[in-house]
């Protein structure tokens, strides 16, 4: 880390040092779900906690080694010099919440005990002293007020026993550590922005709290039970910062940050620890990567031009194998279970090192073999199988930033056979929490339709903010249940909206159904049998296609039971059919056509197709959404869509592919390549030696073309 960056980090740490006075958890589940109220008397907990003792010893040793002990002791002295009124003022946002819930039973003596406890615990987090820790542990007033808070929060007798001074100390130690880890892993430009922008500093505090929430500490449950909020946190921070000399805070924060760096050099990362080597640009590259790159460079340096091609081919093969190895992690042993929720926080230096190694490989392959295209790899994080229906997966900001820097294509999270590939970069730029809730499907959910999966609810936060829609879709693969006797082609992922099913489609791959989602809600897979009373005349050649495409929600009847197979299709209707069927629709997509309003039902479908280059306007500014679509236009849109979704290749000899059509000359020059592709691959078929490029297509014909596109391989 450069001197300049260290100064910036220390200054930001100083501006937020007072956050240690009040860490406010923002857990997603209320205690009412998991705890019962009781009035059990407090029982003394066992002392001591070896984890806190070990941690305090390490932090103190690091402060001594870096020469920072005097600075933090000066801050401790300043804190201890605060008056009783100062302490009450600092703690008032917290004690006020508790008083609101407990009423008169939480008296002035209790408030004073809470304020004194905060003072003493913060003192030892700034100056770890085991003698002082032991005194605090054995202060009867502290143990009594913690028990009172736990009972008031509705804890069980065993949970009341768990609330000790050690738990409080651990909470504040961990909060400081999380904040230090986040600062350490930010690139310099983001640190500078945070230094000058209080809103960004608030966001960093929020991010530290989100990282802390994954630890499931007892103190968090107490805060949560009393409704202490982020606004309360900021009030406490402001109160505390106004009471302590800023110069003393700056020196202490700099010393603490240096101590965390020193600890990180000598301890292995683990449950809740600061990320080892997480600074962007300083993450350790795996030796296997440097050895491979060095070996390739040596071979190339001594090779003739004739030998270099073979060396590079072998190098790409080895590099690809190493990327595959680096990108796969089994996190099953890291899963923690608390209050019925399984969780894992991805923050370890091994993950960061692997990502950095992948980035180094991609960079060198590009430099050494510029003509070789290497697909952006995906980081695979597998939690294995867990018994819990609620799962939370946290990705530290450092992991996301390193993934962006490395050029990863996404991060694949897998648990119990379900997987979700999250993009990195763009909107996905910050610490991520991904939540999964599973429940059994029944008739109250699916009605008369047969369920082929459990019901899944997904939740996503980025940088501490809840996100329900996103421009970069998340790919989910949902495991199927018992599908005996089920028509797999009719399976569709359904979104549950106000108790009704909205069919999204999806592609069955083995025992999974895969779908790109641009919003999150509740989902279930069902066998969606759709029947129409007016398709007998087209049943022989279009019946199956209509049934399947309707099951996916890509095409709908004109009204219940009526398909209207011979009606023509508009350009807007076909945009919806195609994007829904091939799973490329995006509700947040925008378009620039003057004749398509953002409020039009077709706008997101036209926008999604336009964004991918699948459709173009009939002029520079107009799409003509209500005009009937021609066969040549449909063929071209399908060809372009299959290039995007399935990597299809253009026909090499367009003229030869169209030679069998007597009316080939009437195909617009801009549409010939698309017609040639669709014709050669049997997606759109001519009649009596003609393609009829300018003829309108019926709804039955559109269903058949899209069905063939869906099944294109």
Could you characterize what this model shows?
The protein is of the alpha+beta class. Among the domains are: 3-266, no CATH class; 536-710, no CATH class. Helix content is 47%, strand content 13%. It is built from 26 helices and 17 strands. Strands 2, 3, 5, 8, 9, 10, 11, 13, 14 and 17 form a ten-stranded mixed sheet that branches. Strands 1-4-6-7-12-16-15 form a seven-stranded mixed sheet. Helix 3 crosses helix 14. It is globular.
Q: What's the helix and strand layout?
A:
Layout: H1 3-15, H2 50-65, H3 69-80, H4 84-102, H5 108-126, H6 130-137, H7 140-152, H8 157-162, H9 165-184, H10 188-196, H11 198-213, H12 218-225, H13 230-241, H14 246-266, H15 287-301, H16 305-326, E1 328-330, E2 336-338, E3 341-346, H17 349-368, E4 378-382, E5 390-395, H18 397-406, E6 410-415, E7 418-422, E8 432-439, H19 443-446, E9 450-451, E10 455-462, E11 465-466, E12 469-479, E13 491-497, E14 500-505, E15 507-509, E16 512-519, E17 522-527, H20 539-551, H21 571-581, H22 603-611, H23 631-646, H24 654-658, H25 672-680, H26 699-710
Parallel strand pairs: 1-4, 3-5, 4-6
Antiparallel strand pairs: 2-3, 5-8, 6-7, 7-12, 8-10, 9-17, 10-11, 10-17, 12-16, 13-14, 13-17, 15-16
Helix pairs in contact: 1-10, 1-14, 2-14, 3-5, 3-14, 4-5, 4-13, 5-6, 5-7, 5-9, 9-11, 10-11, 15-16, 15-17, 16-17, 17-18, 20-26, 21-22, 21-26, 23-25, 23-26
């Amino acid at each position: 880390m450069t001197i300049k960056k260290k100064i910036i980090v220390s200054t930001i740490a100083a501006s937020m040092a007072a956050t240690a006075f009040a860490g406010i958890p923002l857990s997603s589940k209320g205690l009412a779900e998991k705890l019962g109220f009781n009035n059990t008397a407090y029982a003394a907990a066992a002392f001591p906690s070896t984890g806190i003792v070990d941690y305090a010893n390490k932090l103190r040793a690091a402060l001594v080694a870096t020469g920072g002990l005097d600075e933090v002791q000066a801050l401790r002295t300043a804190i201890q010099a605060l008056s009783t009124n100062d302490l009450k003022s600092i703690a008032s946002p917290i004690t006020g919440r508790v008083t609101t819930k407990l009423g008169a039973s939480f008296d002035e003596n209790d408030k004073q005990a809470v304020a004194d406890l905060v003072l003493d615990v913060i003192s030892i987090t700034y100056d770890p002293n085991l003698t002082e820790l032991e005194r605090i542990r054995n202060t009867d007033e502290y143990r009594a007020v913690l028990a009172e808070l736990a009972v008031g929060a509705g804890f069980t007798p065993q949970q009341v026993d768990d609330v000790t001074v050690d738990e409080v100390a651990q909470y504040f130690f961990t909060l400081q550590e999380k904040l230090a880890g986040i600062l350490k892993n930010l690139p310099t430009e983001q640190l500078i922005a945070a230094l000058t922008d209080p809103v960004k500093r608030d966001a960093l505090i929020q991010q530290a709290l989100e990282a802390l929430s994954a630890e499931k500490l007892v103190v968090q449950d107490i805060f949560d039970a009393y409704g202490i909020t982020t606004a309360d946190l900021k009030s406490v921070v402001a109160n505390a910062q106004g009471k302590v000399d800023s110069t003393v805070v700056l020196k202490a924060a700099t010393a603490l940050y240096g101590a965390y760096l020193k600890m990180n050099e000598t301890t292995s990362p683990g449950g809740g620890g600061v990320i080892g080597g997480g600074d962007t640009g300083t993450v350790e590259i795996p030796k296997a990567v440097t050895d491979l790159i060095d070996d390739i460079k040596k071979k190339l340096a001594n090779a003739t031009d004739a030998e270099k091609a073979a060396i590079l081919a072998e190098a790409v093969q080895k590099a690809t194998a190493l990327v595959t190895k680096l990108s796969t992690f089994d996190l099953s042993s890291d899963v923690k279970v608390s209050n019925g929720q399984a969780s894992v926080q991805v923050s370890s230096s091994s993950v960061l090192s692997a990502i950095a190694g992948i980035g180094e490989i991609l960079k060198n392959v590009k430099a050494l073999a510029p003509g070789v295209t290497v697909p952006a790899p995906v980081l695979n994080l597998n939690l294995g199988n867990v018994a819990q229906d609620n799962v939370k997966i946290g990705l530290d900001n450092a992991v996301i930033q390193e993934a962006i820097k490395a050029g990863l294509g996404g991060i694949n999270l897998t648990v119990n056979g379900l997987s979700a590939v999250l993009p990195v970069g763009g909107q996905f730029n910050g610490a991520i929490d991904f939540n999964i809730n599973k429940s059994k499907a029944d008739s109250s959910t699916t009605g008369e339709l047969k369920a082929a999966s459990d019901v899944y609810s997904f939740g996503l936060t980025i940088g501490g903010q809840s996100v329900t829609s996103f421009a970069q879709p998340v790919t989910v693969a949902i495991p199927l249940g018992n599908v005996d006797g089920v028509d797999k082609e009719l399976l569709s992922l359904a979104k549950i909206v106000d108790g009704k099913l909205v069919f999204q489609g999806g592609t069955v791959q083995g025992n999974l159904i895969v779908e790109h989602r641009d919003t999150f809600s509740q989902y279930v897979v069902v066998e969606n049998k759709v029947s129409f009373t007016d398709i007998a005349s087209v049943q022989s050649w279009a019946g199956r296609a209509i049934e399947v495409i309707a099951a996916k929600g890509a095409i709908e009847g004109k009204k219940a039971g009526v398909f209207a197979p011979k009606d023509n299709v508009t350009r807007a209707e076909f945009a919806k059919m195609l994007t829904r069927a091939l799973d490329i629709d995006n509700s947040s997509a925008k378009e620039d056509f003057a004749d398509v309003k953002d409020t039009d039902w077709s706008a997101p479908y036209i926008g999604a197709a336009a964004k991918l280059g699948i459709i173009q306007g009939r002029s520079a500014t107009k799409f003509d959404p209500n005009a009937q679509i021609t066969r040549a236009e449909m063929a071209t849109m399908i060809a372009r869509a299959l290039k995007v979704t399935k990597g299809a290749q253009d026909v090499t000899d367009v003229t030869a592919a169209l030679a069998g059509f007597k009316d080939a000359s009437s195909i617009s020059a801009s549409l010939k390549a698309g017609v040639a592709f669709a014709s050669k691959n049997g997606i759109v078929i001519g009649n009596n030696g003609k393609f009829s490029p300018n003829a309108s297509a019926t709804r039955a014909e559109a269903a058949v073309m899209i069905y063939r596109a869906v099944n294109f391989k």
